[in-house]
Design brief:
The protein has five helices and 20 strands. The N and C termini lie far apart (51 Å).
């Protein structure tokens, strides 16, 4: 075990330190924050044998370039299909590698996805706020936003040869359809608006950050209550402003709101939704609360089994070679 120091050669906007989040503080006006894509975040930690709640770096489409100044450490990169530059090679995300002193790592937007996750085989030395290192992007509280020229360190760093290589991707959330439960203020919308919401294709707009994702498409017409008394809102709420434009609330959402909410995206589908990019199509499927519970329970069960599988060590290089049938199919003549 040793200490490691990195400097940030470049950091795009909304590159932040995140742990699993700080639930239970909405009554104080504080959202949970945490990773946008929880599955990818937990996978990055699990494949290193970390606690899945451990602090990692969330990387936006702006990208991140790191330089290792002291020590060496094994790290994992998951999330969207980002492009990794390492040791003069260009590789895809969903991989585990070891970075040595003097080496550079670049993570930037690739073919798809909006967020990538960088987890380390060591503990990041970052600030806590309300017992969590998750960064609240609008205030900067928590571990903080990463900035060009900044340095950060890790303790208890280790090199894990037994974990290096490609990471198995989850195969249980590849559907493009986004499931939502109607309400809680669907009574304030015209009947035609409900039909439009469930039958139309929307697109992700450029107005998309950690607070919310605004959509473009057909307007969702209200029949009354353009403004209702402010009430608690949750991640996944689809609120509609007076101009009929829907916005899906995400990790750093405000804790109360006065716009009517036509539907709520189920929690298990938010992880897929946040990886959509600007101009990507979004199609909603309305389900009832019982179906939502069933889908969420099934999702959580599959996620638990997936993370458990990822956490198992692959063995040393020698052990992995010995386990392979390297001469299968070859005949030797006497």
């Amino acid at each position: 075990m040793s200490d490691v120091e990195f400097s940030i050669s470049f950091a795009g906007p909304l590159v932040t330190f995140q742990d699993i989040g700080r639930p239970g503080n909405m009554r104080y006006g504080v959202s949970a924050s945490g990773p946008m894509d929880i599955v990818s975040f937990e996978a990055a930690n699990a494949v290193l044998g970390n606690d899945t709640k451990q602090t990692a770096i969330e990387i936006s489409l702006g990208g991140l370039i790191l330089q290792c100044h002291e020590g060496s450490i094994t790290l994992a990169i998951t999330g969207g299909d980002f492009l990794i530059e390492y040791q003069g090679q260009k590789i895809s995300s969903w991989t585990v590698l070891t970075l040595q002193k003097g080496e550079r790592l670049s993570v930037r937007a690739g073919k798809s996805g909006s967020w990538a996750y960088l987890a380390f085989s060591g503990k990041l030395n970052v600030k806590d706020w309300l017992n969590s290192s998750s960064t609240h992007s609008t205030s900067g509280f928590g571990g903080g936003v990463l900035k060009t020229g900044q340095k950060f360190t890790l303790t208890d760093a280790s090199n894990q040869e037994n974990r290096i290589g490609p990471i198995l991707k989850p195969n249980f959330y590849t559907n493009d359809l986004i499931h939502a439960v109607l309400g809680p203020q669907d009574q304030y919308f015209m009947n035609t608006a409900i039909k439009i919401f469930s039958n139309s294709i929307f697109k992700v707009s450029d107005n998309y950050d950690r607070m919310g994702m605004q959509l473009t498409g057909p307007k969702l017409e209200l029949k009354s209550a353009l403004s209702i008394p402010s009430e608690p809102v949750v991640k996944g709420s689809i609120q509609v402003s007076g101009d009929g434009i829907p916005t899906i609330l995400l990790a750093d959402h405000q804790t109360t709101g006065g716009y009517p909410k036509i539907a709520t995206v189920i929690s298990s589908d938010i992880n897929r939704l946040v990886q959509f990019r600007s101009n990507q199509s979004v199609k909603f499927v309305l389900i009832n609360s019982n179906e939502a519970l069933q889908k969420t329970r099934k999702f959580l069960d599959m996620k638990e089994k997936y993370l458990e599988k990822l956490s198992i060590s692959r063995g040393t290089l020698e052990q992995r070679l010995m386990s392979e049938n390297l001469i299968g199919g070859i005949e030797f003549n006497s």
